[in-house]
UniProtKB/TrEMBL annotation:
It comes from Jimgerdemannia flammicorona. GO terms for molecular function: oxidoreductase activity. This is Thioredoxin domain-containing protein. Residues 1-146 form the Thioredoxin domain. The keyword Zinc does not apply. It is found in: Cell envelope. Pfam families: Redoxin. InterPro entries: Redoxin (IPR013740), Thioredoxin-like_sf (IPR036249), Thioredoxin_CS (IPR017937), Thioredoxin_domain (IPR013766), Thioredoxin_ResA/DsbE_sf (IPR050553). Residues 141-162 are annotated as: Disordered. Belongs to the peroxiredoxin family. Prx5 subfamily.
Length: 162
């Protein structure tokens, strides 16, 4: 699973945050970091990790890191009401995986056994997956974000030299 490159996923309905394509094209010379976190409204451990994911989203807000919580639940009203009730505790992008494309591209091949499970992708390539409260999650994300920032910084520096 580590090293798998994710192709563009369809069938996601974004109910909070800006819509984008998981596995979509990345501007040449950019380093894009994406966290895809699988969760559900009925999952007590997910409810515990949601504020943590929000903290992580705030920490990396100025970096080229995007965080999206993805649920397989099909009842849009249940998910929307849950997200609204969470308010600022769930302050990141949220999508419903209507066609199970994210589940089939990430969760199933990883043989993950439960939720919450987070995946860190760098330029659409899986570099880590596991529980979002695992210290390795933030360590890996920190490394990925640093690489993204270093690359962006070196490009900016190069442009200034022209």
């Amino acid at each position: 699973m580590i090293g798998t490159v994710i192709q563009p996923l369809k069938g996601l309905e974004f109910i909070k945050g800006e819509e984008f394509v998981i596995g979509g094209p990345i501007e040449e010379g950019k380093n894009k970091v994406l966290v895809v976190e699988f969760w559900a409204t009925w999952c007590p451990p997910c409810r515990t990790s949601i504020p943590h994911i929000t903290e992580v989203a705030h920490k990396y807000k100025t970096k080229d890191v995007t965080i999206v919580g993805v649920t397989n639940e099909q009842d849009e009203n249940t998910v929307k009401n849950f997200v609204e009730d969470m308010g600022d505790k769930m302050d990141y992008t949220v999508a419903i995986d209507l066609e199970r494309s994210a589940r089939n591209a990430l969760f199933v091949p990883s043989k993950a056994s439960g939720i919450p499970t987070a995946f860190i992708l760098e330029n659409n390539k899986v570099v880590w997956f596991g529980h979002p409260m695992d210290p390795a999650f933030e360590q890996t994300l920190d490394q990925s974000a640093s690489r993204a920032s270093a690359r962006a910084g070196s490009e900016q520096g190069g442009e200034e030299d022209l």
